[in-house]
Amino acid sequence: MRHVLAAINADPCARPVLDAASALAELFDATTVALHVRETGVGSPTELTDVAGVELREVGGEPIEQIVAAADEGEIAAVVLGSRGAQAGPRPAGHTALEVIKRVAKPVTIVPPHARTPKRFARLLVPLEGAKESSEAVDDTIALAHRHKLEIVVLHVHSPSTMPAFSDHEPHGTQAWDQEFLARHLAATHEHVRLLRHFGVAADDVVAVAEEAAADLIVLAWSQMLGEGRAHVVSETIAHSSLPILLLPVRVGPRRPARATR
């Protein structure tokens, strides 16, 4: 049995995390299991998990180490945790969230404390930069979304150097470019897929487009590196999004054969 692991504390931010974990478990064809790392002077989220009908596992120790160790278990398909403990405005993710997403080589969903999470996801926003590795990282999740008949909104943000120069037949050129992009970067069927193209900076556009598109979940492929000059889109999205963000590690290893155009 596959599980989605919800790392929660006994605070108001636990509810959005548990809700997001339940919605993700449905998408991943899994069940939800909650993990609480006991801390001195802090209560237990037993009441919350009892009401939700979710198994609660309580352990002692250092939170980051315990979450990473639990995530490494073979039955765990994905991890869900809060971006930070305070329900404040836009701000960077907390130390625990940042360490976990760097160290867990599985899908990890980061949930803002003020997140609006439905009982099931209906529409995903999937930003794609056009790199083969990042496109492959979202393949499995896209396939699951198709199986559950979810709508998929793909976002591609052009920079001045990547903006295509179309002929005088602008509508035809735009449609052809869109079809070619999806054919190259989505392995699954394009049914229920809509491509949005913007011109600007991806780190500035993802959150705004997610709100405009009424998405329930933002899906980002990433390298698991947060050093200077790295993962700017991930950092900015976590800091400003009111939606859960599913982070999918880019696979390291033999490359797949190139996709054929359709």
Walk me through this protein's architecture.
By secondary structure, this protein is an alpha/beta fold. It has 2 domains: 109 residues, HUPs (Rossmann fold); 127 residues, Rossmann fold (3-Layer(aba) Sandwich). Helix content is 34%, strand content 23%. It contains 9 helices and 10 strands. Strands 3-2-1-4-5-10-9-6-7-8 form a 10-stranded mixed β-sheet, sandwiched between helices. The longest helix has 16 residues. The two termini are 36 Å apart.
List keywords for this structure.
262 residues; alpha/beta; ten-stranded mixed sheet; disordered C terminus
Q: Could you give a quick summary of the protein structure above?
A:
This protein has 262 residues and is α/β, with parallel strands linked by helices. Helices cover 34% and strands 23% of the residues. Helix 3 packs parallel to helix 4 and helix 8 packs across helix 9 (232-240).
Structurally, the number of domains stands at 2
CATH hierarchy, class of the largest domain: Alpha Beta
Under CATH, the topology of the largest domain can be stated as Rossmann fold
CATH architecture of the largest domain: 3-Layer(aba) Sandwich
Compute the average pLDDT: 87
Largest sheet: 10 strands, mixed
Total number of β-strand segments?
10
Radius of gyration: 19 Å
Lateral strand order in the biggest sheet: 3-2-1-4-5-10-9-6-7-8
Provide the low-confidence segments as ranges.
Answer: 253-262
CATH homologous superfamily (4th level) name of the largest domain: HUPs
